[in-house]
Design goal:
Layout: H1 42-51, H2 57-74, H3 76-96, H4 104-151, H5 156-161, H6 164-206, H7 208-215, H8 217-255, H9 257-262, H10 266-292, H11 294-319, H12 324-336, H13 338-365, E1 387-394, E2 403-410, E3 415-419, H14 426-433, E4 441-446, E5 449-450, H15 456-461, E6 463-466, E7 475-476, H16 477-482, H17 490-499, H18 503-508, E8 516-517, H19 526-540, E9 544-548, H20 556-570, E10 574-578, E11 590-595, E12 598-603, H21 605-611, H22 614-623
Parallel strand pairs: 3-10, 3-11, 6-9, 9-10
Antiparallel strand pairs: 1-2, 1-4, 4-5, 7-8, 11-12
Length: 625
């Protein structure tokens, strides 16, 4: 060891620990940073995010302990390398003066110490990285669970005004970004802070004058980082905006791919995509260019400090106030003092991006949920199906009311047809009955009980709804029909299919009831899909049946089969039939004719034709040809 007051030091390269490179690329190719705009409320969102880390406090403290030990060990190698250089220097100069030469025993001891220290740094960094990666993925897992649970509690009006692609992006992209960078950010901050403290401490021990010169570049480094980060954020905000536009356009074109091809609009869609893509490229290029300036500028500033330290070290060595080994150790510290500064700058951006992503996720999780169910819900066991609408007023927004003072009394077991032009409010009526939306005023009662007195699950459990737009999932035909009642047996599923006149066509398919419906459900016809959804409704055996244009997508022959099945199904059940095809509702017990949210006429088919009013006009307009 040299005669200088030497202490613990660090190695050539800092930091150790989990690499930011495993995250997505961000400003200037900085690892771990996604193109996310700055959080609106950084502190509040960060506190909310940290609350998801509380269950893992013990594991986090253990990981931080590993980081501290690994970083502390990593401070030693430069000091030891300086000792090795001093041993060689003293041995070489001593031999020239007749001494014994280089002390290889001491040199070997230093080399063994360096090997064991670097192995220790690797092991502690590996353990810390594994633990933080596990913690961050568990947090992502919990966030996804909370997010998905929230979806089921959200009112439909939220999804009416929010693009589905935006909700999907929050659940996938934003949570992925949080998972990729959250654990790394925390570990990197601890590592960088300990590294910076350790390096400066060792530099002070080695030489106060040289430390003062080396630290002169730090304020300049912080100013550069702050300036560039501030400027780059506006471009990343624009990048995120145009990225959303591009994603939305892609989703829209793929969803309507057949329509685009039918109207030969491929070139127009491509032009629109290219316009948005060009804007995205411009914003992304500016963001990457500005943020990429950090590395060359920090490298330049670091080199200036390195040159100044080297010159001063040479002067002090000539003056005999410092040893050669000390200069070597100090130069290594001077070269790497900017590493923790750079790391803190990167982590600052990563953390900012992470919190911005978290803010979008928490905005959804904190959205107002559906009004809670009644604390003492009404029972549904003896419900018969009498439905009463009392002065119902409703609008999807408070300033535009589309159902105006609607009143009707539907007796149990009656077939009620609701007809009218598009936009008259027909489908809205049954959505209100199922309490997909709450009223502005008025009441809806079932057997004299306000529907708000029932639990939503119980209320919807006594009804079933067959929509105009069929929905089937990727799975077997048997599974798709059983979705109406998951505990139904195979025989019950087949009976429901027979009642819906679907059994015959199912038997003609490959594998019959075990045939897989693909993700787009385009390996069966539209009419066949509608038959399966009707079979699903039959299987549920509801108190109240709602058919919303249920036969609009089938041919005349299939419609006759479905109508016969519906006649059997509707016996003894209160049924609401929404139809544009007026031939399907001639035998309804009561027809409500709606226009602009009001009932303008009501009666049977024959009575309404006799009145020669609005219904008569609609009916004859369909059949006059």
């Amino acid at each position: 060891m040299s005669q200088d007051n030497r202490g613990n030091a660090t190695n050539q390269r800092q930091p150790q620990g989990p690499s930011l490179g495993r995250g997505r690329r961000g400003p200037g190719g900085m690892p771990g940073m996604g193109p996310v705009e700055k959080a609106k409320d950084f502190k509040s969102t960060l506190r909310h995010l940290l609350s998801y880390l509380k269950p893992f406090r013990a594991a986090i403290f253990l990981a931080i302990g590993f980081a501290i030990v690994g970083t502390a060990l990593n401070v030693l190698p430069p000091w030891l390398l300086g000792d090795a250089a001093q041993v060689i220097f003293e041995g070489t100069t001593g031999r020239a003066e007749g001494g014994s030469g280089v002390d290889f025993d001491t040199l070997a001891t230093i080399i063994y110490a360096l090997i064991f220290i670097n192995i220790g740094v690797f092991l502690f960094s590996l353990l810390q990285g594994i633990m933080m990666a596990s913690i961050s993925q568990k947090v992502s897992y919990n966030l996804r669970k909370a997010f998905y649970a929230k979806i089921n509690k959200m009112p439909l009006k939220y999804f009416d005004k929010t693009p589905h692609g935006d909700v999907l992006s929050r659940m996938t992209n934003d949570i992925d970004l949080m998972g990729d960078s959250l654990g790394q950010s925390l570990a990197q901050m601890i590592t960088a802070a300990i590294s910076l403290i350790g390096v400066i401490t060792m530099m002070v021990i080695l030489s106060i004058p040289m430390t003062a010169v080396a630290l002169l570049v730090l304020p300049l480094s912080f100013v550069i980082v702050r300036f560039i980060v501030k400027r780059s954020q506006r471009y990343f905000k624009a990048q995120q905006k145009f990225l959303g536009a591009v994603n939305g356009q892609i989703e829209e074109v793929f969803a309507g791919h057949q329509v685009v091809k039918a109207f030969n609009s491929e070139h127009r869609a491509l032009e629109n995509f290219n316009q948005d893509n060009d804007k995205l490229y411009s914003a992304a290029w500016k963001a990457q260019f500005v943020s990429a300036l950090i590395f060359p500028l920090m490298f330049f500033v670091g080199n200036v400090g390195y040159v100044a330290v080297s010159v001063l070290g040479a002067y002090l060595a000539i003056a005999g106030t410092i040893a050669v080994g000390t200069i070597l150790s100090f130069v290594q510290y001077a070269r790497r003092i900017s590493d923790p500064v750079n790391m803190l700058a990167q982590v600052s951006n990563v953390l900012q991006s992470t919190v911005a992503a978290a803010e979008r996720v928490f905005e959804f999780i904190d959205e107002t949920e559906e009004a809670p169910d009644a604390q003492s819900p009404a029972a549904t066991e003896n419900i018969t199906g009498q439905v009463t609408f009392e002065n119902v007023n409703f609008g999807y927004s408070d300033d535009v009311i589309i159902i105006n003072n609607f009143s009707a009394n539907i007796e149990q077991g009656k077939r009620i047809a609701i007809v009218g032009p598009t936009g008259a409010g027909k489908t809205t009526i049954v959505k209100l009955l199922m309490r997909y939306y709450d009223l502005q005023s008025g009441r809806i009662l079932i057997d004299g009980v306000d529907i708000t007195s029932f639990k939503r699950d119980d209320l919807r459990g006594m009804m079933t709804m067959v929509l105009q737009d069929t929905w089937l999932f990727n799975g077997s035909i048997m599974e798709n029909i059983r979705y109406g009642r998951l505990n139904a047996t195979d025989d019950e599923v087949i009976s429901a299919a027979k009642a819906a006149s679907a059994h015959h066509f199912i038997q003609t398919l490959p594998n019959g009831y075990e045939m897989e419906i693909n993700e787009e459900a385009n390996n069966i016809s539209q009419g066949q899909k509608q038959l399966l959804t009707i079979a699903r409704a039959i299987l549920l055996d509801p108190k109240i049946l709602i058919l919303d244009e249920a036969t609009s997508s089938v041919d005349t022959r299939t419609e006759i089969l479905i109508q016969a099945a519906m006649d059997k199904l509707m016996q003894g059940r209160t049924s609401f039939i929404i139809a544009h095809r007026l031939s399907t509702i001639r035998h309804a017990d009561l027809i409500l004719v709606m226009d602009n949210g009001d009932i303008v006429e009501q009666g049977t088919h024959a009575e309404l034709l006799t009145k020669d009013g609005f219904y008569s006009e609609l009916y004859h307009a369909q059949f006059e040809s």
